[in-house]
């Protein structure tokens, strides 16, 4: 023991990452803005004895369970019970642990993420062992997000999975088996008792532990839950100018929202600090590229353990040894994590030291990490296309966990093939394209206007396209939010700011007729108010909003006492006494969605119903209000309003799809009423409710123009026909097509605050593009060998990006690839009868040598 | 499926009777999951609440009389629905209509006796202080340290008179200057209130309060957690405040102050049963265990359901007066739990619990292996 | 707000000082979870100098503790 330190860790750390000489240092930093992205703390169930956590060995939290599922977890990805290290065969998940409960030490709000993460855990558990019996004890299923409903169905339909609607008593641990006995309620068969091998507590989200200290330090206001007190018109801002909040510190949120609020906070910092952009940041400088094209290939092979992800199956040292026997391989070694900073440095250093001119990384899929390794080559002064990734994880260790020897043999095959291809790799040049600094925003609702304003505030011109005569979109029909924001004054002020901003140019009654161009250099043709405008721009944001479903159900359109929630909101605002003075009102949820035709949840309607109910009750407390629902999806902090509505006497009745409410117009007591009947599952009886007014939660449906606009901008649609983002989690406000972004309800139904968050997020992402003078286009694109081209045009037809056209050359009319538009998918290669068109980096020589080596 | 319309007149009556909190229920089912009834027979508090919410309560039925007011569901309810208030409101309505199912009929006799004699046991008011004679317990006077509010069962019941005696003796050993009200003492009224008879409760409470004031009472010692609960938490509704202490607390106080020396031994395995109204309702969990811990050689073991999770004996909410089939008695289950942990003595601190446990002890033929004791009996025996 | 933001001139002066003035940045991001990382990356790409502070020894936050993520079941790392 030296200075009370055993030093063992330093000895075993292969990365030399442990340094005992480090001491805390205090630094004063001066900045122009602060973003608080302090996140959440998982709820600690130890504080509630009833959950048995810490008392019963086989009760774990969902965070613990994530580790059990993980291949880098305590049992290397095997789900084992703590008590006996055996595989559990029967697992229970308990929902709402720490959430939706007024009991002391728990949170009254809904954490918003647990329903879906539990379904994910069930799906993963079944992937580990299809025979495990999975039971989920829940209250409402809150599948309110994009694709959540389908995901829930996927989990629910797995054999051996039960979703049971009951909170439970975690009754006792059986002394011998250490199994846990759970009691739960049924509608008609009393309380049941069941034994489980493992119990997972689906814990909710708490504000960060030190939230008070944090708030004091930064002088920001918190709400009574300990999250940032949202400013209705801009939840990213705080009461302190220059201090912004992103992620779950706004209140419980999921990953996509944490990501786009981060981009949104970035945009608001940009609005504040635009004048100093680029002043403090340093340009990254790479060493000069060495021309190695005339050299004999000298290949270095790096085989990654990926922690234990690869090395627990594949024999890594043997693979390294094998690699050394391959032609042109002059160096090979293993690495614990090749993607770690120090490993990349090692690759750079070794490339220089050993004179390597090509690198093979035997690790994971190139999808995520290829850019990193290409960068590593640039650091070593090599052309970045001299890199190849041999995927021995997804293609090998992950799929052959039980066949270690065969997997090692396969890893060697994959490395051999990769080495063979690498010998033929060619240096490719990427090129810079100038970026037009103007933005195009399609849609003049809250989403479009917010994003346009933020982009303009950061010094960029914006063309804002609105299909109607007036700006405002759907928000023109909304009067308050559930949190109490007056929508119309906010909307008026936003519209005023848009018109007042000299950098924003609005086109009214506008229709886009054509879009062309490429990243940073687009052009759109817009017909507006009798003239045609050609707009050149560098990036576009599609914020075209959504529509309200026109119900054909429940006498809508036939009886003038049947409204939609949106209409009721307007009637309340207009003071229509037939509505505001009604004796009884029945709301029916999920009209036109969560069905076969529209298999998604419209997300906003539960809160919308509660909001209207609260308004009506405040106005006339004795009004009988019934809300007929399938699951109350007042997620997040909105749960408090659901409870408020109950407190005010609003009655909630749950129904199921196979026995929906019936509405009938009848005469009773001399007046025309609507008779609504609905089964109550707890009573086991059908309730007959007489209503003066019926209000329907009409679905939010994609805007009529969605498909047409998607076609013009070459962006994709989700199964529900809303716009499809590039990546649910990591790229939530951009499309797969470069330079095109999205926000608002065109992406998926959402509340105003969420729309504002996302609109700022889109602005932030747009600025990461528009603040650049140039963008880099890939070197891996197609090229035509003009001598071989017979000018048949097959490639032109095949190309999805209009990247190929005929050009007159000395040798006649030949196909020509616009390098900026080419996405390198190689479709044209397959169509060319004379092999005249090739995709660089995937040439025949490269691929055939790889295949020959197999 | 039967079709019904909500019955708003009944809903309004329930609200007026104090049960409006039904509106908060979101039917999660937790109350049913934790309810002790579901260990012996099906009973759905959730359904009872749902029926109340739509005015569909079966006022003549037995369901509304089942809740023992043990408080297990209320403690955990995520919406803080006060299930006991709802049950009581329904019983008030049934009492008003004078509709009682057979098993509840005895309650009517109890009410008569309470009004006439100040106790539910059909005993003469004049005999209330008789038990104290042989122990030389004095009538309370203003100069005394504390009033011992004995309670009905300890005053009349043969088994429980022993508890009163033990309490009196141990107080004397500690040199406490105390007295009783004798025939001036009335039933505290807690259980008849839970059984829905608010007028009888008010009568008993105001009589007691008047007596306390007339006699200059400040601090009151009780043996029953039910007396404790109502004197401490419900009498303040009449704008009076007395200092109330339960015997388990008081013993701990006396020991801590050095007035009582527990010098005896009891080489037995003992388990302690938390009465609902002492534990869950009033958060007194540690003092009785502390006191038992002072007895030399006594080995204290915990049953499966202890402290906050304690299993109700079945006697609360007026159930002590109603008929419960032998197969449906929670006390039977509790005795089995005591046996499972090898206890030789089951100690508690509530006359209802002792009554129910003694009965189960007979029924289960555990007379030889398990004793039922009040905490004051244990301590009295352990103090020389 | 005015007193929080340094005058443009002063900033430029400081910038000219080059790397010698190491304690001036544009934005401080508190928290190195997914949101803090994304904010830092966006700001840096958009031309700002960012300080990212994290209480723990590594960045990644709660997301890094997850095995895989909805709905693609992608590895969260």
Word description of this protein:
The complex is a heterotrimer of chains A (854), B (384) and C (77). With 854 residues, chain A is of the alpha/beta class. Chain A is built from 22 helices and 40 strands. Chain A has 5 domains: 41-206, 3-Layer(bba) Sandwich (FAD/NAD(P)-binding domain), CATH 3.50.50.60; 299-422, Rossmann fold (3-Layer(aba) Sandwich), CATH 3.40.50; 439-545 and 703-773, FAD/NAD(P)-binding domain (3-Layer(bba) Sandwich); 548-700, 3-Layer(bba) Sandwich (FAD/NAD(P)-binding domain); 778-852, 2-Layer Sandwich (Alpha-Beta Plaits), CATH 3.30.70. A 5-stranded parallel beta sheet of chain A has the order 3-10-4-5-6. Chain A has a 5-stranded parallel beta sheet with strand order 20-19-18-24-35, covered by helices on one side. In chain A, strands 26-33-27-28-29 form a 5-stranded parallel beta sheet. In chain A, helix 3 (114-128) links the parallel strand 4 and strand 5 (133-138). The longest helix of chain A has 19 residues, at 255-273. The two termini of chain A are 53 Å apart. Chain B has 3 domains: 8-103, no CATH class; 106-254, Rossmann fold (3-Layer(aba) Sandwich); 261-382, AF0625-like (Rossmann fold, 3-Layer(aba) Sandwich), CATH 3.40.50.10700. Chain B contains 16 helices and 10 strands. In chain B, strands 2-4-3-5-6 form a 5-stranded parallel beta sheet. In chain B, strands 8-7-9-10 form a 4-stranded parallel beta sheet, with helices on both faces. In chain C, strands 1-2 form a two-stranded parallel sheet. The radius of gyration of chain C is 17 Å and the shape is elongated. Residues 1-7 and 14-20 of chain C have low confidence and may be disordered. Chain C has a domain at 25-63. Chain C starts with 7 loop residues before the first helix and ends with a strand. Chains A and C meet through strand 1, helix 2, helix 3, helix 6 and helix 19 of A and helix 1, strand 1, helix 2 and strand 3 of C. Strand 32 (685-691) of chain A pairs parallel with strand 1 (3-4) of chain B, so a sheet runs across the interface.
Largest sheet of chain C: 2 strands, parallel
Characterize the largest beta sheet of chain B: strand count, sense, and whether it forms a barrel. 5 strands, parallel
* β-strand number of chain B: 10
Name the poorly predicted regions of chain B.
none
| Low-confidence runs of at least 5 consecutive residues of chain C | 1-7, 14-20
Provide the spatial order of strands within the biggest beta sheet of chain B. Answer: 2-4-3-5-6
According to DSSP, the number of beta strands of chain C is 4
* General shape of chain B: globular
Q: Which strand-content bin applies to the residues of chain C?
A: 15-25%
Number of helices of chain C: 2
CATH level-1 class of the largest domain in chain B: Alpha Beta
Radius of gyration of chain B: 21 Å
């Amino acid at each position: 023991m030296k200075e009370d330190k055993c030093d063992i860790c330093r000895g075993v750390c292969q990365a030399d990452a442990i340094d005992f000489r480090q001491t805390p240092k205090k630094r004063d930093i001066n900045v122009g803005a602060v973003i608080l992205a302090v996140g959440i703390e998982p709820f600690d169930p130890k504080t509630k004895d009833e959950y048995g956590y810490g008392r019963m060995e086989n009760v774990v939290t969902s965070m613990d369970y994530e580790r059990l599922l993980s291949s880098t977890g305590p049992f290397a990805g095997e789900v084992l019970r703590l008590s006996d290290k055996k595989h559990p065969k029967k697992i229970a998940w308990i929902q709402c642990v720490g959430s939706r409960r007024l009991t002391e030490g728990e949170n009254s709000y809904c954490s918003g993420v647990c329903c879906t993460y539990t379904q994910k855990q069930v799906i993963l558990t079944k992937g580990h062992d299809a025979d495990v019996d999975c039971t989920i004890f829940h209250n409402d299923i809150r599948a309110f997000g994009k694709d959540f409903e389908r995901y829930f169905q996927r989990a629910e339909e797995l054999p051996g999975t039960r979703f049971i609607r009951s909170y439970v008593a975690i009754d006792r641990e059986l002394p011998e088996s250490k199994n846990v006995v759970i009691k739960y309620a049924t509608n008609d068969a009393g309380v049941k008792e069941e034994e489980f091998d493992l119990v997972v507590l689906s814990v909710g989200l708490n504000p960060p532990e030190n939230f008070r200290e944090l708030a004091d330090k930064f002088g920001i206001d918190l709400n009574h839950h300990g999250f940032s007190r949202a400013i209705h018109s801009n939840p990213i801002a705080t009461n302190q100018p220059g201090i912004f909040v992103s992620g779950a510190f706004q209140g419980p949120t999921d990953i996509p929202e944490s990501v786009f609020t981060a981009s949104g906070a970035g945009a608001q910092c940009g609005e504040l600090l635009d004048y100093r952009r680029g002043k403090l940041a340093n340009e990254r400088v790479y060493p000069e590229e060495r021309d190695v094209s005339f050299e004999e290939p000298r290949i270095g092979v790096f085989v990654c353990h990926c922690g234990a992800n690869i090395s627990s199956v594949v024999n890594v040292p043997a693979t390294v040894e094998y690699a050394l026997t391959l032609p042109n391989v002059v160096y090979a070694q293993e690495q614990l994590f090749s993607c770690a900073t120090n490993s990349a440095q090692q690759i750079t250093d070794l490339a220089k030291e050993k004179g390597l001119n090509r690198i093979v990384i035997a690790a994971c899929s190139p999808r995520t990490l290829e850019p990193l390794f290409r960068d590593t080559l640039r650091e070593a002064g090599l052309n970045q296309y001299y890199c190849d990734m041999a995927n021995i994880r997804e293609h090998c260790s992950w799929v052959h966990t039980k066949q270690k020897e065969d997997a090692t043999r396969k890893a060697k095959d994959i490395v051999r093939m990769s080495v063979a291809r690498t010998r033929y790799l060619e240096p490719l040049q990427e090129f810079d394209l100038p970026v037009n600094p103007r933005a195009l925003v399609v849609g003049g609702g809250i989403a479009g206007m917010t994003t346009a304003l933020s982009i303009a505030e950061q010094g960029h011109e914006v063309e804002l396209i609105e299909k109607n005569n007036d700006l405002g979109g759907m928000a023109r029909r909304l009067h308050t939010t559930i949190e109490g924001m007056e929508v119309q004054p906010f909307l008026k002020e936003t519209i005023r700011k848009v018109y007042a901003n000299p950098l924003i140019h609005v086109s009214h009654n506008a229709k886009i007729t054509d879009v062309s161009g490429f990243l940073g250099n687009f052009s759109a043709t817009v017909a507006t108010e009798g003239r045609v405008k050609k707009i050149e721009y560098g990036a576009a944001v599609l914020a075209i909003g959504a529509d309200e479903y026109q119900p054909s159900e429940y006498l809508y359109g036939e009886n003038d006492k049947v409204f939609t929630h949106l209409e009721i909101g307007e009637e309340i605002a207009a003071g229509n006494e037939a509505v505001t003075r009604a004796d009884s009102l029945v709301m029916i949820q999920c009209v036109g969605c969560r069905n076969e035709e529209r298999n998604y949840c419209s997300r906003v309607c539960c809160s919308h119903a509660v909001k209207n109910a609260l308004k009506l009750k405040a106005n006339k407390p004795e009004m009988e209000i019934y809300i007929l629902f399938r699951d109350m999806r007042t997620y997040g902090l909105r749960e408090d309003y659901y409870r408020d509505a109950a407190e005010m006497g609003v009655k909630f009745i749950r129904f199921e799809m196979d026995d929906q409410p019936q509405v009938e117009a009848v005469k009773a007591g001399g007046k025309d009423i609507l008779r609504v009947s609905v089964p109550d599952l707890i009573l086991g009886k059908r309730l007959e409710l007489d209503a003066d007014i019926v209000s329907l939660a009409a679905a939010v449906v994609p805007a009529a123009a969605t498909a047409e606009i998607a076609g013009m901008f070459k962006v994709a649609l989700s199964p529900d026909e809303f716009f499809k983002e590039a990546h649910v989690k990591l790229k939530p406000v951009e499309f797969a097509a470069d330079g095109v972004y999205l926000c608002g309800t065109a992406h998926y139904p959402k509340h105003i605050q969420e729309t504002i968050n996302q609109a700022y997020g889109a602005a932030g992402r747009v600025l990461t593009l528009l603040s650049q003078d140039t963008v880099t286009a890939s070197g891996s694109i197609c090229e035509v060998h003009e001598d071989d081209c017979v000018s048949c045009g097959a490639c032109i037809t095949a190309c999805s990006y209009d990247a190929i056209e005929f050009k007159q050359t000395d040798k006649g009319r030949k196909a020509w690839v616009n390098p900026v538009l080419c996405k390198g998918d190689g479709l044209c290669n397959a169509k060319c009868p004379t092999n005249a068109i090739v995709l660089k980096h995937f040439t025949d020589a490269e691929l055939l040598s790889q295949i020959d080596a197999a | 499926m039967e079709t019904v319309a909500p019955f708003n007149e009944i809903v309004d009556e329930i609200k007026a009777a104090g049960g409006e909190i039904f509106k908060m229920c979101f039917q999660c089912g937790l109350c049913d999951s934790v309810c002790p009834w579901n260990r012996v027979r099906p009973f759905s508090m959730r359904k009872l609440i749902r029926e109340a919410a739509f005015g569909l309560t079966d006022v003549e039925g037995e369901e509304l009389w089942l809740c023992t007011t043990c408080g297990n569901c209320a403690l955990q309810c995520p919406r803080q629905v006060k299930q006991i208030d709802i049950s009581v409101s329904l019983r008030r309505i049934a009492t008003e209509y004078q509709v009682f199912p057979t098993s509840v009929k005895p309650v009517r006799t109890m009410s008569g006796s309470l009004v006439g004699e100040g106790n539910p046991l059909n005993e003469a008011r004049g005999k209330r202080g008789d038990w104290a004679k042989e122990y030389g317990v004095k009538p309370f006077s203003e100069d005394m340290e504390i009033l011992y509010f004995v309670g009905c069962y300890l005053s009349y019941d043969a088994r429980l008179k022993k508890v009163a005696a033990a309490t009196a003796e141990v107080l004397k050993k500690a040199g406490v200057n105390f007295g009783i009200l004798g025939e001036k003492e009335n039933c505290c009224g807690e259980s008849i209130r839970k059984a829905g008879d608010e007028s009888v409760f008010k009568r008993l409470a105001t009589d007691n309060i008047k007596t306390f004031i007339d006699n200059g009472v400040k601090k009151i010692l009780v043996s029953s957690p039910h007396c404790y609960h109502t004197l401490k938490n419900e009498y303040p509704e009449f704008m009076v405040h007395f200092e109330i202490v339960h015997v388990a607390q008081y013993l701990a106080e006396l020991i801590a102050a050095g007035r009582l020396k527990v010098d005896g031994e009891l080489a037995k395995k003992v388990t302690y049963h938390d009465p609902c109204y002492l534990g869950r309702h009033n958060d007194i969990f540690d003092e009785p265990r502390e006191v038992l811990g002072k007895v030399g050689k006594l080995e204290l073991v915990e049953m499966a359901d202890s402290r906050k999770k304690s299993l109700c004996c079945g006697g609360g909410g007026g159930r002590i007066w109603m008929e419960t089939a032998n197969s449906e008695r929670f006390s039977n289950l509790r005795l089995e739990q005591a046996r499972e942990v090898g206890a030789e003595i089951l100690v508690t601190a509530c006359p209802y619990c002792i009554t129910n446990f003694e009965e189960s002890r007979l029924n289960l033929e555990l007379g030889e292996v398990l004793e039922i004791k009040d905490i004051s009996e244990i301590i009295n025996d352990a103090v020389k | 707000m005015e007193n929080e933001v340094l005058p443009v001139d002063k900033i430029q002066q400081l910038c000219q000082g080059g790397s010698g003035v190491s304690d001036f940045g544009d934005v401080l991001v508190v928290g190195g979870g997914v949101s803090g990382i994304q904010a830092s990356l966006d700001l840096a790409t958009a031309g700002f100098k960012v300080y990212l502070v994290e209480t723990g020894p590594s960045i990644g936050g709660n997301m890094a503790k997850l095995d895989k993520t909805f709905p693609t079941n992608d590895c969260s790392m």
